[in-house]
Amino acid sequence: MTTVELRFSAQPEHVRTARLVAAAVARRAGVDEAVLDEVRLAVGEACSRAVGRHRTHGIHSPVKVVLTEEDKTFSIEVGDEVPAPGAGGDGAAGSAADRSAGPGDDPVEPADGEDDMGLAVISGLVDDMEVSTTETGGVIRMSWPTAPVSVVP
């Protein structure tokens, strides 16, 4: 099992680098060439979501991307440090239904629709996807099958 870990500051300009690294590691792991564009797009969406969540909630720690090559699977986990609603923290996390805003108040997280749209895009690109949120943050886990790498003598 091979693992590559990438951490980057929550800045939109770093998402491109994460996409390029993910595609390179996926190629090396044996992910089919025809699927590499889907890997790039899914990682871009997941990283953009994590960056947006960090920036919206004022979190300055890095976004974490873990790329793992296993026997027949290549997986990517993109993690943020925005806690689940009601898990302590500053109470800013959660969906619009979890928050109450008075008249004239701006919602705490204006990009809820964008967040949902990003998850919908990822689920359209990846057959095996899991989204979880705990008191320490959220993780999007995605995986793709790998083809055995044949070595020509």
Written description of the protein model:
This protein is an alpha+beta fold and about 150 residues long. Strands 1-2-3-5-4 form a 5-stranded antiparallel beta sheet, covered by helices on one side. Residues about 90-110 have low confidence and may be disordered. It contains 3 helices and 5 strands. The chain has a single domain (about 1-95, about 115-145), classed as Histidine kinase-like ATPase, C-terminal domain (Heat Shock Protein 90), CATH 3.30.565.10. The chain has helices at about 15-30, 35-55, 110-125; strands at about 1-10, 65-70, 75-80, 130-135, 135-145. A hairpin with a 3-residue loop joins strand 2 (about 65-70) and strand 3. Helix 1 runs antiparallel to helix 2 and helix 2 (about 35-55) packs antiparallel against helix 3.
CATH architecture: 2-Layer Sandwich
Beta strands, count = 5
Separation of the first and last Cα atoms: 24 Å
Question: How are helices and strands ordered from N to C?
Answer: EHHEEHEE
Largest sheet: 5 strands, antiparallel
Could you tell me the strand content as a percent range? 15-25%
What is the name of the CATH topology? Heat Shock Protein 90
Sum up the overall morphology in one term: globular
Q: What's the arrangement of strands in the largest beta sheet?
A: 1-2-3-5-4
Rounded mean pLDDT is 82
In angstroms, what is the radius of gyration? 17 Å
Residue share in helices?
A: 25-40%
What are the low-pLDDT stretches, counting only 5+ consecutive residues below 50?
89-111
CATH class: Alpha Beta
Counted by DSSP, the helix tally is: 3
The CATH superfamily appears as: Histidine kinase-like ATPase, C-terminal domain
Summing up helix and strand content along with how strands pair, one would put the structural category as: alpha+beta
Can you tell me the number of structural domains?
1
